[in-house]
Fold this sequence. Notes:
It comes from Candidatus Corynebacterium gallistercoris. This is DUF559 domain-containing protein. There is one protein chain. This protein is an alpha+beta fold and 244 residues long. It is built from 7 helices and 13 strands. It folds into 3 domains: 4-48, no CATH class; 50-109, no CATH class; 132-241, Endonuclease, Chain A. The chain has helices at 50-60, 63-76, 81-87, 97-106, 114-125, 174-193, 211-226, and strands at 4-9, 13-18, 28-31, 34-39, 43-48, 132-133, 136-138, 144-146, 150-152, 158-163, 197-202, 236-237, 240-241. The strands form 4 sheets. Strands 11-10-9-6-13 form a 5-stranded mixed beta sheet, sandwiched between helices. A hairpin with a 2-residue loop joins β3 (28-31) and β4 (34-39).
Amino acid sequence: MIPKVAVQTAQRVTVNVPVALEAKVVHTNNTNAARTTNTTAPLTVTVAHPAYTVFTLAAWHSLEDAVVAAEHALRTGALTLHTLHRAAPHFTNLAGAATFRQALRLINPHSESPRESGLKCKFFRAGLPAPLQQPIVHDSARSPIGRPDFLFDGTTGLIVEYDGDGKYGSPDNTEEAFLALHNERRREKRLLSVGLRMFRVHSNSYDDPEMMPDLIQAFHQQEKLRGGAAVPRCLIEGGYRAWV
């Protein structure tokens, strides 16, 4: 049975319904064999449960779409991991169940933006090992350097950061942008000093087909530079595996 949620709203709602289902409408317009119904009265709308929406995205769209939507729902409180996993048996025998099971491995509450959710899907599909999300990295004196988006620990030591458009402040405030950039470069030098390397993904490179090959190349180069030496655990505090 498809789980549903009843949503009560007093806001203006546009509902597209098949002509055969139309009843007691205030105003209608023909829209591709359906009718658009407009009403300003309080309305209860029954919609698919967020867990079913995640399944539908995995089954009919992509792994990335499902994970991005699910983790956004976790951040906003529209969905919990417990509810998502409890709903999973409903979809076991449906087409798309395999992709949904992959999504369940990736979905967690630790991604802080849709791009972080999407990036780990790219890592997963590329066959990379699961990095840590949001670990705190320390220097040799145990002073915290920062909390990167992703850290491939083990014998790699590659940090991946997503730089959104607003990371370095407003483009209209050159002083603020300069200070933010200066602090970020200083942090990057401190990371290099403990044997870690930074790979940055920007808003204009996220969808670039060359981005992942470049990242994979950086991953293997960094692994080679470390010569098989593991990243010391004393440098890393906390963090969560990007998938299980």
